[in-house]
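Example protein as discussed:

>
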Amino acid sequence: MKIAVIGCGAAGMMAALSAAGSGGSVTIFEKNEKPGKKIYITGKGRCNVTNACDVTDYFDNVCRNPRFLYSAIYGYDNRAVMDFFEDNGCRLKVERGDRVFPVSDHSSDVIRTLYNAVKKAGVKVLFETTVFSVESTGGKVSAVAYSKGNDPITHEEFDRVIICTGGMSYPSTGSTGDGYRFAKDLGHKILEPRPSLVPFEVEETWVKELQGLSLRNVGLKLFLEDKGKAPSEGGKPGKKAKPVYDGFGEMLFTHFGVSGPLVLTASCFYEKEKAGRLLLDLKPALDEQQLDKRVLRDFEAAPNKQFKNALTALFPSKMIPVMVELSGIDPEKSVNNITREERQSFVKLIKNVPMTITGTRSFNEAIITRGGVSVKEIDPSTMESKLIKGLYFAGEVIDVDTQTGGFNLQVAWSTGHLAGESAAISQE
């Protein structure tokens, strides 16, 4: 069985390994000069290989189409991935949140392990080679048109083709949406690719004053409303509004808005067609009543202090002027003159700092892409196209995306493994 794999990233190398291990004659086409360029930058260069959670919990972290992944994940789960790397000499460790990293903290070790296994399996790899199209005849894959460097275009026949080109995030790594074009030319529906696991841009100008400030152990809620609908409570969602995301962790203020783990995860649930609002809870461990008592104690400990000087125990110094401004309370006012209503309003603010989303950052700053080839047109038990025989998909090119924590790479390993194995053993 002659099999072409387009893309030498996580899904591509795993698909090639699986196909070769099942008896296929495999060629990988990669337009970059080396393998795994996107793997290299994942996890801030450390590569969050997978997540060590119970496999049944995995699907809770899939934002779209989790059921589509059942066969792939259960067929090649996180334990199988960890065993593969350990067995091939890349020692792993489990950190907070069950995130799995190489012991060396170097993503290059993950790439090296994968690529060495690919070469050992006898897979042919063509670097700096551009694929122009995947050709079909009579509803079945027939050839790949490609060119290496400035060479003339070659049309080489293949029995099976596995598209593992990734999405559109971090285009400098080669993720420029080629796979969407191949799939669309062959009749597949492409759900609009959008940046995901990406920072938010916000409307409020005070955010810029906090640029560089990182907050830990805070709560963040994302609300979505129909555009044009008048929000209640002066711009905050009404009491009946339910957040589409409610998380706890770390976030970062930037010159354009907000970023950090909490924000990136929230972005999975954002819809640009909706009006998005964030509510930041600076003291999630306390309810409003407990927080009111805490603020009152601080005020009573120094009753003659000016309001602007009485908040050092509550917030980082950089945040105090912003919170004073947002409160509407006179900064020169002594705390013993602050009314009960003013104090309680301030407590509500601490628990609900509002921010208005104007959009997300671009694909250049997105960790992953949401959208892609419709899962309705892919057989979840094989990763084969339902439209073109012998055409398979794996990884980020498919309309499946997850939250942070190693789950997206697990999608690549699992779908790649299933696609490779299915392509090699299929008798059709």
